[in-house]
Amino acid sequence: MNFLIVGLGNFGSSLAIRLTQLGHEVIGVDSSMSKVEMFKNDITHTICANCTDIHSAKDLPIQDTDVVVISIGENEGDSIMATAIMKQLNAKRIIGRAVSKTQEIILNAMGIDEVVHPEQDSSFKLAKNLTTEGLIDTFELSDRYSIVKVTVPERYVGKTLQELDLRNTYNLTVLTTLTKTQKRTFFGLRKGTFEVNEIAKANTVLEEDAVMVLFGDVKDIERFLE
Q: What is the model's pTM?
């Protein structure tokens, strides 16, 4: 996959380096030449550019990028401006960064549904979520066990949990499912979200675009996602 990481502070640089180590094509962008020079040997490509200026941002290969991550944290205004410009330039997928509740509200109002909180989400966790197909979020209970949110694989749509028998097939427990829906933001824009259903039962039917919440051994989860 191709990633564009805007902002090479502690979080952004760690994420860019980790994605590079995982074998992905990564462009790290920062307005500080010293940071660009600092990480040029650790990230696939580094570019000095001001992404709060649309003329500067236009020169970046945004259309060839699968995911743009705005990781600017020092200045909330710059972070919001860079996010707005990437949206204006029709980036395929944008992940915003929020360091305050107000910033998150603004990003949601702009139609940015994916927002990370560096104080809660480590760069390693985000790298794992971005590069594992079907994986939406993880909560690591220990080095061995995790609770994860995964999109329902196409081959399982329309089937019941009893039919799939994931407990015996993959040694995984389905805790619940989430149904995709939409709600309006304060500014009247539609925002995609998920509603939690009841505790999963044997007769629970897996719907298209739904999400499963699984508990199990990390190795079994990885085997399920293959």
A: 0.60
Could you give the percent of the chain with pLDDT greater than 90?
36
CA nearest to 93, candidates 115, 67, 119, 75: 67
Task: Tell me the C-alpha distance between 210 and 189, whole Å.
Answer: 22
Question: Whole-number mean pLDDT of the chain?
Answer: 83
3-state SS class at 193 = strand
pLDDT of 1 above 80:
yes
Give the DSSP per-residue string, 3-59. EEEE--SHHHHHHHHHHHHTT-EEEEEES-HHHHHHTTTTSSEEEE--TTSHHHHTT
Closest CA to 14 of 2, 31, 35: 35
The answer on 215 and 146 residing in a single domain is: yes
For the stretch 142-155, pLDDT in tens is 667 777 888 888 88
163 alpha carbon, distance to own chain's centre: 31
CATH of the domain at 57: 3.40.50.720
Domain that holds residue 201: 134-225
> For residue 130, what pLDDT is reported?
55
Rounded Cα gap, residues 217 and 121, in angstroms: 21
